């Protein structure tokens, strides 16, 4: 018996995503791909004898309702553009695939309707919350939280390599005293303190250089005000021993830290250099502009939807863990 050809078969042969194959075969004129790619998809579909009736079936299959569960509140999301960008990536790719999305904030699971076909969970979740989510839908993908070991598909960012690159960036420039300001967080049910991979990687990287100093590391809560207060504390506590460079865990905290340095008449980047994480638009809206690790936040959201498309094609598919790389964006705060 001949196995039915799927979009996945075509995508693998054409070396493109499932979403691209679906949009090409459905003559989506808004899709931005080369004519060569379009021809390759149609050619492979013909070679595999992928029928129009099958395409119509897949298109109908793609009419799904997706709950996007954000662990942040609306206010928190707008204060930290990192999670907003992830959600925008999810919603854009869902629209491309013909999905309907419902945004639910602050992990309010009571708002999850009975008509939901899948869940994309954005943020950090305790083991209890993970089990609650899995009972609401068997089609579950986590973004920015790694639950692959528990059998759930996860889309995450490479924190370790990115942090090592920042430390190496300063080290190559002869800076040996490097501090860090990071945030502490808890799951919304207050059951689990979220491990900070950036802080852990930073400590390990500097220990390899025998240059880690605990007094150079301060913990806040990821807000701009917290970054301001932590840098102000470092200035008062360390005086002339203030590190010549700081790695800061997100852009809002970096903006707050910059403000504290400027108020103390400490020149950036001449006396203290700052390197942030996330590379949201905020990093460019301050003076001097802040160097930052660029995280592909929108791609994280899009990838989560692509994983769901794949799972809808094959209910037996195993969980997948996708880790996206980062790049360093150098700006005036480190030059």
TrEMBL record:
Domain of life: Bacteria
One Pfam entry name: LacI
Keywords attached to this entry: DNA-binding, Transcription, Transcription regulation
Gene3D superfamilies, alphabetized: 3.40.50.2300, lambda repressor-like DNA-binding domains
All residue ranges annotated as the HTH lacI-type domain in the record: 5-63
Coiled coil: none
Annotated GO MF terms: DNA-binding transcription factor activity; transcription cis-regulatory region binding
PANTHER family, per database record: HTH-TYPE TRANSCRIPTIONAL REGULATOR EBGR, LACI-RELATED TRANSCRIPTIONAL REPRESSOR
Protein name: Transcription regulator LacI family
Organism whose genome encodes this protein: Lactiplantibacillus plantarum CMPG5300
Phylogenetic placement of the source organism: Bacteria, Bacillati, Bacillota, Bacilli, Lactobacillales
